[in-house]
Amino acid sequence: METFFDILKITIPSVIVFLTAWVLLRNMISNDQDKRRQEIIMQNSRTILPIRLQAYERIVLFLERISLESLLIRTNTPGMSAGQLHSALLNAIRSEFEHNLSQQIYMSQQAWEVVKNARSNTIKIINTEFENTVNTASGLDFSKQLLERVMELDKEPTKTAVEYIKNEVARIM
């Protein structure tokens, strides 16, 4: 019985020391893993933030390029009919949108929806005004009609989207 107590005297302190060392090492390893995760997250944010900002810049450029004033300046050529201008405007918007489609990866879902809505509303304005145009109208008449419609709006759809994008970028930074 005395040897049993001697064994217990040796075993209990060694088990306590072992458990203490095990808990301390486990906590130390866990803390080290957390630090490494945080470092990776920080490194990724340093890499991804510039890419996200570049995506937002490209989307603002897209929105500016599909604003009706900008579209009319770029696409309207002398001698165009209203139908030709209508097609040219829609093709320009489609082309610009397809060119910037990949930017949605870096944007929030809400921001991308605002961009898509701006594009859709711009197309809707063009289509509505084209339907209200007489068949024999020139491109110049159609462009005047579009500009008058833009002047009637409180805010052009692309301007609203640009403001939303600017606010979102401000929140990111």
List keywords for this structure.
83% helix, mainly alpha, 173 residues
Architecture overview:
The protein has 173 residues and is mostly helical. It has six helices and no strands. It has one domain. The chain starts with a helix and ends with a helix.
- The total count of helices amounts to 6
Overall morphology: rod-shaped
What is the C-alpha radius of gyration, as a whole number of Å? Answer: 32 Å
Q: What percentage of the residues does DSSP assign to strands (E)?
A: under 5%
The poorly predicted ranges are none
Question: What structural category characterises the helix and strand content?
Answer: mainly alpha
| Major sheet characteristics | none
List the helices and strands and how they pair.
Layout: H1 2-65, H2 68-75, H3 82-99, H4 109-131, H5 139-152, H6 157-172
Helix pairs in contact: 1-6, 3-4, 3-5, 4-5, 4-6
Short description:
This protein is mainly alpha-helical and about 170 residues long.
